[in-house]
Specification:
Length: 397
């Protein structure tokens, strides 16, 4: 089976992967908490930044699965970019504005004397600050992690939105002008992915980098996902002929899960640059929804977390910040300066924190993501461009 079918009659739905997307979003929300707990001090989350790369693999897998054979012209390409922009930008824009207002409120609090500058603190919009007008503009244009800055700023997790958006253009260019069809095409992609990770491993100590080389990090994960999609289509007809028992399928999935968790825990540092083959087998294995783990990950609750996972990812850092400020102001007065010495109070604090993250994400998905997506998709950018072209140029006096 040398070539991939151009189109599928009905887009596949990968319930387990959707559930994992929701769980991973919550894990990242815990990783970004600013107080100590048993969870964020564990080896799994201490080495947790590499889990972000699983999202890039998911994205590449889904994009190739959904759009292979459907991007054949400039018009289809423009429609693709518009759909992706409509998917990612509304919540990004809203959270950027919230982060900007928070930065301004922080500055205003110092102006009026409600807060004092602590040693080493740099206020927003001052020399040396990460929150500047320039970084606001780069966040606004989704270029904040394309190597123009030496720091993250505003809603910091949005660095992935920046690099993934520009990765879509690389993907589109490939699909329009060099669409992979034959096995050797995908072997070339695999080779380029390997070279990419090798070069990055020479430049960085581990996979926790973003504002400078994050685009290349995203390319590696995204095109690993493309390779997963190709192999999935090759294997799925043969897999459908197999009659795996439920216990055997579940055992295979437990092994896949253990391999991924073990990789994150026991392979820190330079070893993290081997994420591509680990993520490859993980996403490929769970794309078949074959065993008990998949059925659990495909339950209604976890699928809904997957549905709102992008909102979870985008809103959690500011909620974490607010929880941290409130905890440091209130809890030492109630329980003393060593209120979190055992980390048990910090672990318990995760419960209302995650509840608020999910609650907020439910509403941002419903009232920001969905309306924003519909508004952008309904907007005729082409007509506006034509209108600008009809404006007569001013004559020189």
């Amino acid at each position: 089976m040398g070539q991939i079918a151009a189109k599928q009659s009905k887009p596949a739905y990968f319930a387990a992967l959707d559930g994992f997307r929701g769980v991973l979003a919550l894990m990242i929300a815990v990783y970004h908490t600013m107080w100590m707990s048993h969870a964020n001090s564990s080896d799994l989350l201490t080495n947790g930044p590499v889990l972000v790369d699983i999202f890039f693999v998911f994205s590449g897998f889904l994009m190739f699965t959904l759009y292979d054979g459907r991007l054949n012209s400039g018009a289809e390409g423009r429609a693709f970019i518009k759909r992706r922009f409509a998917r990612i930008y509304p919540i990004h824009f809203v959270m950027l504005i919230v982060a900007f207002l928070y930065a301004f409120a922080r500055l205003a609090a110092h102006w009026v004397g409600l807060a004092t500058v602590t040693p080493g603190e740099v206020l927003p919009f001052e020399p040396g600050a990460t929150e500047t007008l320039q970084s606001f503009i780069s966040n606004l244009t989704l270029t904040q992690s394309m190597g123009f800055h030496e720091h993250l700023s505003y809603n910091m997790p949005s660095w992935t939105v920046s690099v993934e958006f520009w990765t879509y253009f690389v993907f589109l260019g490939m699909m329009l002008w060099a669409r992979p069809k034959k096995p050797w095409h995908f072997m070339v992609i695999a080779g380029l992915v390997g070279v990419n990770y090798f070069v990055l491993s020479r430049l960085k100590p581990d996979m926790d980098f973003h504002y400078d080389l994050g685009f290349w990090r995203c390319l590696g994960g995204f095109f690993t996902g493309v390779l997963v999609a190709y192999v999935y289509r090759l294997v799925v007809p043969k897999f459908q002929k197999l009659s795996l028992t439920n216990w055997l399928a579940t055992l295979i999935e437990l092994v896949l899960l253990a391999v991924m968790v073990g990789f994150v825990i026991y392979f820190p540092g330079k070893a993290q640059f081997f994420i591509a083959p680990i993520a490859f087998i993980f996403v490929l294995g769970f794309s078949f929804d074959m065993g008990g783990v998949s059925r659990f990950m495909g339950t209604r609750v976890l699928r809904y977390l997957g549905k709102i996972s992008y909102s979870i990812y985008m809103v959690h850092i500011l909620i974490s910040l607010c929880f941290s400020i409130a905890a440091e102001m209130v809890l030492p007065r109630l329980f003393g300066p060593l209120w979190n010495a055992t980390q048990i109070p910090g672990s318990l604090l995760l419960i209302p924190y995650l509840a608020l993250v999910i609650f907020t994400s439910h509403f941002t998905f419903k009232y920001v993501e969905m309306p924003g997506r519909k508004a952008i998709l309904a907007y005729d950018f082409g007509a506006k461009l034509k209108w600008f072209k009809r404006i007569p140029a001013k004559q020189d006096a």
